[in-house]
Design goal:
By secondary structure, this protein is of the alpha/beta class. The protein contains nine helices and eight strands. Belongs to the UPF0677 family.
């Protein structure tokens, strides 16, 4: 069976969209994992467009994954179940946050996820999707081909998160005086330490009281430019490598955020946590709304 984990998921300076490497393959790989999960009898995440993205890109490695008749391994560290759990966690985060007063949602590095189309957003919710221009162009083309209609007020922002994305966000109609639900899903591990700090500082600066943030994180690992596992000086903002073992999701508090009035919640969405969605495997969840 072709494995998503066999590819290099790391970022490099100045990289851009490519369907067989770097950012492009990362987005497609995650979409392929969601497509496999979507085929389950009782999937953790329902994404009717994930397979369309993979087949539209025509990448043989991932098409082979979809066409394989072998069953998906039960280990949550493997890509399909890992992505299913991750997607479920962030889906529940957004549903909970936007039904608790957050009128805006910002998805940093949105990739090929279609939450703006598949989640039951409260009426009038603005959903801002930030990612590379080529990623969003490809995404929009495939969605248009399948007559996809958003369930939110979707705003696309074509920008590299290493650039001045706050300015682009504000220009797209983001209101920093309105409580916001933020997500950094499958993102932090690809950023160097300084870029991680800057990202959180910008989120803090743009967040009104009542805002919430969800971050995929683990202690002590990130992907270096050559794809190797390495240590960081500030482990609470590190994130697990898709190749690593003992997976763990959390919505975690960063140093810049804890200094700015954010507090940690219990990660319980509609009475559930990750442990309710899969067998016991050491996964934990927490949330960090801003007071």
């Amino acid at each position: 069976m072709t494995n998503i984990e066999d590819k290099d998921w790391s970022r490099s300076e100045g990289d851009s969209w490519d369907i067989v490497s770097s950012v492009g393959f990362t987005a497609l790989g995650v979409a392929a994992a969601r497509a496999v999960e979507n085929r389950e009898a009782d999937p953790l995440v329902r994404d009717p467009y994930a397979e369309h993205f993979v087949r539209a890109a025509g990448e043989p490695h991932l098409i082979g994954l979809l066409d394989s008749s072998e069953p998906k391994p039960p280990n949550p560290g493997t890509a399909p179940r890992h992505i299913g759990l991750r997607s479920k966690f962030f889906d529940e985060f957004f549903i909970n946050a936007t039904n608790s007063g957050c009128k805006q949602a910002v998805i940093l590095a949105a990739g090929l996820d279609v939450r703006a189309h598949r989640l039951p957003w409260p009426a009038g919710t603005k959903v801002f999707e930030l990612d590379q221009p080529q990623v969003l162009e490809f995404k929009d083309r495939v969605l248009a081909e399948h007559d996809a209609t958003p369930t939110s007020d979707r705003r696309e922002i074509a920008v590299d998160l290493r650039d001045d994305w706050p300015a682009a966000l504000l220009a797209a109609g983001f209101d920093p005086e309105v409580p916001t639900a933020w997500s950094a899903e499958g993102l932090i591990i690809y950023l160097p330490s300084a870029a991680q700090d800057l990202l959180f500082e910008r989120v803090v600066a743009l967040s009104a009281p009542g805002s919430q943030v969800a971050v995929e994180a683990t202690r002590g690992a990130r992907i270096s430019p050559n794809g190797a596992r390495c240590r960081r000086s500030t482990p609470t903002r590190a994130i697990r490598c898709p190749r690593s073992t003992s997976p763990r999701f959390s919505t975690t508090r960063s140093a810049p955020m804890s200094r700015s009035g954010w507090r940690r919640g219990d990660g319980r969405f509609r009475g559930h946590t990750l442990s309710n969605w899969q067998p016991p495997t050491g996964w934990r969840s927490r949330s960090c709304p801003r007071t």
